[in-house]
Amino acid sequence: MERIAGPEDLSGLTQVGHNIKFLKSRLWGGLEPVPTTQWRDKELNNPEHFTIAHEYLTSVIAVFEYLNIPQIQKNMRDTFNNVSADLGEMQEALNARRKEQGVFAPELNLPALWEQFIRAQYEVMTSTAHSWVLARAAELRTPIVEKFASIPTETPHTPEMVTLSARWNDLLAVVSMADFKIWLPMDGYTGHYPPSEIVAGLHNPDLANQEQSQDFSKLLIDRFAQRLDAARVQGPSAKNPNVPRHERLLMSSDLQDELRLKTRGQSPSPQPPVQPWIQQLLRGHQQIMSMDPQERKGLGFGIAIYRASKEISDNDWEELQRRVEAHLSAWGEGVQGSGELKPLLNLHWFDCKELDYDHQRPALALRSHYKELRSSDEWTHKLAPSMFLIVDEWAVKSYLDEKYMAMRRDQPGHLKGDFQGHVLAVDPDFDENATPSLNATPTSD
To answer: I need a surface site. Which of 48, 224, 317, 359 has the fewest CB within 10 A?
Structure first.
């Protein structure tokens, strides 16, 4: 931890925009840049919102452009190698201790485990980002192709055609950038030996020498020539030897798919991997289910949620609970593993009417109560220890006050899905009196 974010060595820190930091953090956690439900709620597939959707796609690529800046690459590599050296010393000590104690077990190789972990981490980041960009770009292409097909061929230069052509070219460029820029190479990482074959997102020995635009143009010309030759072979009965406009569009995206095999090799899966936090909870559930029924009675995956609004009536409170529970049950569309996990997640509701706390600062006041709650015999293994939820006045409005939410949504520049029902998440161990950190982030996080 000292190597990654300790105050003793700040050489690995660099200032970075909050937009890049936010997306980088999501990708590091194995999360998609924008969940499927949120993308749909924002109506980002609506052609009217194409510019904003395009910005989302390019912002993901900007994250990897940042991570591949030579100095950032060096910082990440140096931090990795320093940690590897530390683990090498620990390994020697642990193996010696095991031998002295007569433990009959294979010798530990901690640097190898560290390399395996980071390699898996990078693979999750690159595959999640790449598959997400391609999936969203494919969705944005569909209405463009349909519109192209509906426009008469005798009117090829209308303003609408110009707009559609520009958008199609933007999407071709985004997909090409995703193929060539969403990489996290590990050259120079201690213990990492790049294979001879291509590993999507991690290793292509000839990536720098590939010219995507030249290869794409050559393939495109070849395919058009093949289509025209096929039309001529049909003879006089062929009504139109030209390739229809919308088919030419589809051909260009097909060629990108063909070139991708050359650039990235065979991708592990067209779908993003199961998010690590979901994997962790599902493994924990498997361990619980392997226990004796009596032992697992007090175990669970619960989240505490407090009623911290003194204005809400009991009837409205019951309605709000129903809406929050329904919101939770609707979560997880397009997220692998969510169907298995959702039945395990439970909200445990606590009414604050009987508690003596500062209503002006509910988060601060309820921290001490939650710390006692999570360590009690009844709840110690049933609640997430690192976070609890609060329903404050703003949360009540977001679920029950339609006029308030409509006013927020109707502000210029806001999309329909930008404001939805929400509750406040609180870190019970946050110390607001601690020294604020630098406005910088470790490149090795």
So the answer is: 48
